[in-house]
Every structure is written in C-alpha cells, then in structure tokens.
Amino acid sequence: MSRYLLNKFLYTVDRDPDLVERYRDDPAGTVAWWEAERANAVLNCHTGEASTWLRFTDEEREVLATQDHVRLFELGAHPFLTLTLFIAMFERDHGPLEYQLAYAERMKHIDMPYPDIAT
Amino acid sequence: MATVVAVIASTHHPFYYKASTATGDDRPPFADEWVRKITAFRETLTRARPDVLVMVGSDHFHQLWLDNMPQFLIGKAPFYDANWYNEEREFGMPRMLLKGNEDLSAHLLREGLDRDFDLAFSNELRIDHSITCPIITLRPEADLPIVPIYTNIFAPPLPRPKRFVQLGQAIRDIVESWPSDLRVAIIGTGHLSLELGGPRQFGPHGPDPEFDLKAIEWIATGDLDGCLSEVTLDSLHSPGNATHGFMDFMLMMGVAGAGAKADHVDSLDLFHTREAYFTWYPNGAPE
C-alpha cells in the first residue's frame, strides 16, 4: 500500500487544470496514463531523472479509477487533497454546499479513530 | 532593537474574501457581521503602526510536498508571489505580490539555528492562503514587507505542540533582538476545531464547539500550562481531522507569552468553523 502514491496522484492532478478535467471525464484512462507516465516522476527535478519503483496496488488503482472518495479516506489518502480535487471536479454539478454535505453524508459510517494518514 | 508592537492570532478562512466582496443574492447572510468583526480586528493592527509583518502560517500542499517536507521553514526572499490556481478556483482568491524583508529573515534564520531550531529556508516561495487571508483581513493594502514562516501542521509526522510553543517564544525573543528601529507585528493563523474531507465537515458549526470555547479561553488568557496539559498530537484528532492547525495558535501563544491576556478577543460562529481573533500589545495599547 502506498499512501504516498495515492497522494501524489491527487496532488499532481489537482494542480493542473487540464488534468482535473481529464480525470473528471475519463477516470480509469487518466489513472492508467498517470501510473504509466507520471507516477515515477520526481517532482521539481530535471525531467531526465525519475524513480523506478512506484506503482499502485490493484485496490488503489481501482479506488482512483472509480473515484471513490470514501475508500480513499479509508485507505489513508490525505483528506484535504481528496476533498479539494473532488470539489473541483463535482461541485459544479450541485447547488451551494450540496456536494460538500453529500460528501460528508456518504462517510457517516466512519468512526473515530480515523485511518492513519502518515506517509 | 526592533519593537514588537502587536502580536496577532487568527483563524484563516479562505471564503472571507469572496463573502465580504459578494453583493446582492450572492452575499451570504452572515457577511455583514463578519465584515464588522474583521474591520474591528483590522483596526487593532492599524493602531499599532507596524513597519514589518512576520507571518506564521502553513502551506497546504502548494509549494511544500511529501518528497521534501520541512517541519519549520522561513522565507528569505525580496518578494513573495501569492495564492495558487486551486485557491483561485475554489475560493476566488486574488493573485498578490508581497515584499519581503531579507534582513529580518536572515536574522531569524541565524538566531533560530543557533537556538537549536533546525529551520529550513526558501529563497523563492509562493505563499498561500494561510498567509494571504490575514493580509486580506488585517492589511488589505498589502503594502508592508513580510517574513513568512511556515509550520507543518498538515503532513504527519508533525512536531509536538510544545515545540510550536517553544518556537513562538524564540521568534518573539529573536525579533526583539533584531538590530533595527522598525516596528514589527507578529501575526499567525491556524484553526480551532476543523474537519476537512471527513464525515463531520461543513456542519452548522465547527465540528467541536466545546473544544472551540475552551481553546478561545486558553488563548485569551495566555493559559499555556492548561493548553499544553490537554493538547497532544493524539488529542487533536478528536475535535476534527484538521485540528492540528490549532498548533499555530499555540505557537502564537508562545509569541505572546505565558499568562499574557489578549487585548482584543472576538469570535464568530459560522457553519463549518468558529472564527477567532486575538490581538496582544506587548508594550501596552497604542494611543
């Protein structure tokens, strides 16, 4: 399990307006492309340098491909990253605060303590 | 030596800018009261006539990321661009450009390192809403040079609450030892109870109103012992999953000093959070 890689996906997509739209429109395709092309990029470094060992587990890949924010939370993805990106993708389809409240409602069954988010 | 003319601690709410500038049907019902409270809060800084602002906040995964995460970082640059695409997108935050004061940055870094704080630094730092929110609320002219100080309240493992307090105490001493005749205000922002991306988010109040009232009492009375006796890295999970931002308030309690009663205390119960505003005048209230 790699909370770091889940977070890296959320972080790099969230900060790129084109990728936000691409992930909204084609979740599974974007996840597959990102894992193949971007997962091992060392951010802020020369593009010739890359890591060699980063990949999703099957579960992580599926959770991202199905845009399941509840399971992302349960896997320990950073809740701020998930929330920010999901608001960017889906708030537009809802009335004021409607999406944020529905997002919370879908998590009502989650008790304290919450999953660890340390990376 | 430099004078600390005001110490200010505040929540930072990225929606204030949008709420306070909205008109007609877009203006939320709480906006007028919020603006009134912020205007009174702003006056507490204006009256202190600062020349330089030391600004304590926390990067929200903008420039600082998990491949290279400092615990405490001081900006040392002549300028700071501010706010990021996703803050513009979600909160309507404006792009800003703030001046720096490299001499004070260098002094804080040198003296901080010599006091056993292994401070990171940045010579090119784009700051985010944890620092621009208080610029917007307290000094919307954005005309004073700043020294940004970032803390990690966001990406565990985090320093413990006591370390935040100790750093605040050190910042106060170091600013007061700066060979300068400038008037410095030290401003820091954090959170009371807060939940982001969890089941308790965006409720009718903050996720833990009881914690919020207790926290306000600790801060307003400078009750560092009481606060430190109850607040731990573990305990902060309970009021809400983003409540570790309260440690920036604890840092500011360290700046203000143990037992220092705030000269201005105000708060506003909003949906999602309780906002809270504190000002101390270390050398007495200005005329």
Overview of this structure, please?
The complex is a heterodimer of chains A (119) and B (287). Chain A has 119 residues and is mostly helical. Chain A has one domain (3-105). Chain A contains 7 helices and no strands. The longest helix of chain A has 12 residues, at 3-14. Chain A is globular and about 45 Å long. Chain B is α/β, with parallel strands linked by helices and 287 residues long. Chain B has one domain: LigB-like (Protocatechuate 4,5-dioxygenase, Chain B, 3-Layer(aba) Sandwich). Chain B has 9 helices and 10 strands. In chain B, the strands form 2 sheets. Chain B has an 8-stranded mixed sheet, sandwiched between helices. In chain B, strands 4-5 form a two-stranded antiparallel sheet. In chain B, a hairpin with a 4-residue loop joins strand 9 and strand 10 (274-280). The model of chain B has no long low-confidence stretch (mean pLDDT 98).
